[in-house]
Amino acid sequence: MKKIIIFSILLVSYSSLFSQIFNKSDELQVIRVNVDISSHITIGEPIEYVDISTNNMVGDIPIKNIFRVKPTGKFRDGDTIAVLTIVTERYKTQFNCVYTDNKNIATSNVDINTSDMASHINDNVYMPQSEMRRLAWRIWNSNNKYFDVSKEEYKLRITLNNIYTYKGFFFIDIGVKNKSNIEYDVEQIRFKIEDKKRTKATNFQQIEIEPVLSINEGKKFVKEFRNIYVFEKFTFPDEKVFTIEISEGQISGRTVILRINYEDILNADSFNKNLFY
Question: Which of 67, 74, 69 shows the shortest CA–CA distance to 38?
Fold first, then answer.
């Protein structure tokens, strides 16, 4: 009899535990959606992946940290028409999308704090962009370490301020000073690894590389411009050079090119914990 009582207690306990787990997984945040309203979900990290469990909803990512979603048609009021899953670099969150006939109560905007999201391990992300930005802004507020790597053309002087390396990434800090009174409109900024010496055009080699992050999106400046670019770690032989080319958006636009030797790359600083943490 005692064994039966103990077994019954354990059975009730396990049933309660499973019920709690089931209910917890079912307690998703609700987004009330309407066919005439777009719901915007804003998250503090770039969105890596989105899943909509049914064809009742469609969505897109107009900006890297905003997901926009909308029903494909009208449904019964109060029906859950889809489960929405959003995964960022380090976090995951889910929503129940519940249809409402009243568009006045439909959810048009949701701001999600990453502290309210479940963490997860993304093997494809070695360093989150939020961490890159934090370190880049620390560099912005630090002193210049390079003073003799610069180039001046058309009264524009481009200068290498700093190079830091951390977790397999380069943080390259450059500045431009405009000594003329003519506003500069940036058309494009290109980064290339190319031969130091140009012989025949057919033999000249160059490889264009793209930064994974920059912290200044400005395209115009009058006197000064500065930006910090983050690159995945790269190497190149001594007979090549890393170039940064800034060109103006006009037919007769001014172009300035900074050439950085591999020796300067090798002199990149590591992050000092006292300064950057």
Answer: 69
Counting runs of H as helices and runs of E as strands, what totals does the chain give? 4, 20
Q: Which of 129, 146, 150 is nearest to 64 (CA)?
A: 129
Cβ contacts of residue 203 below 8 Å, gap of 6+? none
The count of other CB atoms within 10 Å of the CB of residue 44 is 14
46-66 tens-digit pLDDT: 888 899 999 999 999 998 889
Q: Is-above-0.85 flag for pTM?
A: no
Contact 228, 139 (CB under 8 A): yes
39-43 and 66-71 strand pairing: antiparallel
CA distance linking residue 189 with residue 255, whole number of Å: 10
pLDDT of residue 18: 36
CATH of region 131-276, choose from 1.10.287, 2.60.120, 3.30.70, 2.60.40: 2.60.40
Q: 208-232 pLDDT, tens per residue?
A: 888 888 888 888 888 899 999 998 8
